User: Fold these one by one.
Assistant:
Number 1:
Amino acid sequence: MKDCRGHVTVIVSQEERKTGVEYQTIKGEKVPSLGLGTWRLSGQECARAVERALALGYRHFDTAQMYANEGEVGRGIRNSGVDREEVFLVTKVRTSRFSHDDVIRSTHESLKKLRTEYVDLLLMHWPNPSVPLEETLGAMTELQEEGSVRQVGVSNFPPSMVEEATQYANIFCNQVEYHPYRAQGELLEQAKEMDYLLTAYSPVAKGRVSNDAALKEIGQAHGKTPTQVALRWLIQQEKVVAIPKAASEDHLRSNFDILDFELSDEEMERVSALRR
Ligand SMILES: NC(=O)c1ccc[n+]([C@@H]2O[C@H](COP(=O)([O-])OP(=O)(O)OC[C@H]3O[C@@H](n4cnc5c(N)ncnc54)[C@H](OP(=O)(O)O)[C@@H]3O)[C@@H](O)[C@H]2O)c1
């Protein structure tokens, strides 16, 4: 539904509005455990999804220079009327902009598009061996020092590269593909040891978990869908947050509705055993 200004209105009951979600604590900072991924969201659909998500209680958003939707993500946040300080906002520097000056310039462009003075977390999108890690992370640390970026991190980094990255910056996060069919044991151990955030991307395996028989069975015991079980399994792990992408209000709502149940140790094990 839209109001007279063309903004999205979402009817949310008090029961449903559980803002603040659950949190993971990383280096003393709280990060909302469930965020919204925005890859492949664009234009009005993107701005509306972000605005709807904020109305439902989401407070964590993931975008990237590569997604070409930072403007719409910023518009959605602005239109929602939610205070910027309440939102954990993440963007990523594209691999072609990893030289020192490009990192600085492109991040300032991102901030302009996002209509904000800072992002909560800036990530290197993928490793790029043609630019020294020291150069890229050095520039990101300068942005941190000037206040444009609160935390810095990496994405799609194997454990050995995370280790190397810590020589050049205080690494807050590694964002990687993680869902019931994809094991990430080594990174999980490292995240706990080094106290960094492991953000699970493609957390519902791009929709594939919704047909899983084992997840369905576990969900039935809790009155939840297979997708909700997969997301719950992720955020119940130490240092892990999940960022499912959803365009429809139904998906946005049901993905967020995972805060009122818990999986037992045995159920957690059963989901872990689905890895291939
Ligand atoms: N760092 C990286 O290199 C990297 C790479 C990939 C992704 N990411 C980030 O991670 C986010 C999520 O990953 P992803 O988009 O690849 O995959 P995903 O979140 O696992 O899956 C998204 C797909 O699942 C569907 N879906 C969402 N909720 C559902 C539900 N409750 N029931 C059934 N289907 C559902 C969505 O449909 P609708 O859209 O129709 O609702 C969409 O088609 C991205 O948007 C991006 O922000 C980062």
Number 2:
Amino acid sequence: MNSYERVFAAFNNQEFDKFPAINPTSVITNELMREKNIFFPSAHLHPLDTYDLAVAGHNKLGFDSISPYFSIHIEAAALGADIDFSSSKGMPQVLNKPIKNIEGYKLPKDYLNKREFKVFNQIISNLNKKYNKKVPIIGKVIGPWTLAYHLFGVENLIMKTILEPKQIKNFITELSKCPINFAKQQFENGADFVVWAEHVTSDLVSPEIYQEFVLPIHQQAKKELNSYGPIILHVCGRLADRVNILSKSNFDMLHIDSRNDVDFSKKQITNNMQLVGFINNPHLLRKGTREDIRKTVLSLLKKEVKFISPECAILLSVANINLIELTNTLHQFNLDTIKKIEL
Ligand SMILES: [Zn+2]
């Protein structure tokens, strides 16, 4: 099986030769950048650099997917935020919040023609020319709640949610057109999955606020994108109080982090949403040994997690050898052979 066949067999509950190693978020490391002689921030800005570095996640690290959107800046930049690209050691940061008044807010008419969207769609299209049906291409969009953080500010958003709930609902409904349409473009250009990154984490939003303000928009997005391709909802943090509600979005997968219990999370899902993730980035991938990584992967496989991946964009200081240990371990087993392993 090639990577594409492996990932889709697992995704569709069919037999697969070995466990797939997908990366819904960035697996770029300093080491990988040195090997390719391509560095942040230029890798965020120059399409050929983005392409080459994203492909290295597959060729050099062994992942069964290619994810070319390393950060969270594309939509914010296209919609008027200033982005600080100065860091070579981390991700770009959103500097100013361009929207001051959300009353009656409308997206600019021609926003989909912005250079940022065109460039990213071109990268997806180029990847598709080479890897179509060989390696799944994973696109990404930033959900409207997170986009509102970037464009209007976290404090403003939370305050307005209490004071002017109707305005907030209109605002994020309008903003949601951006990820929905950008996701459609990515699928049309050859993405096989699209990650929908939404920071509705427990430190920022209660489950009740998610349910009232964001869930209906997620459900609508899923309806509109259903015929295009599968969506991976990415939410960081502890999700014990909201996995069940998140699953009601009907998105196809939930990219979940290592602070969440596997069995508990699985029980919270009553539909077909599949889980992906569970690998700790700062401790296990950055500081752990290869043996630690192998043990963790095996114990997750024993708990019948089919899609194991880094939990979020990894730290640039992670060693390539640790990521290779992750993908190699996954590739050594399938559903039958893992049963024979004693831990
Ligand atoms: Zn994250």
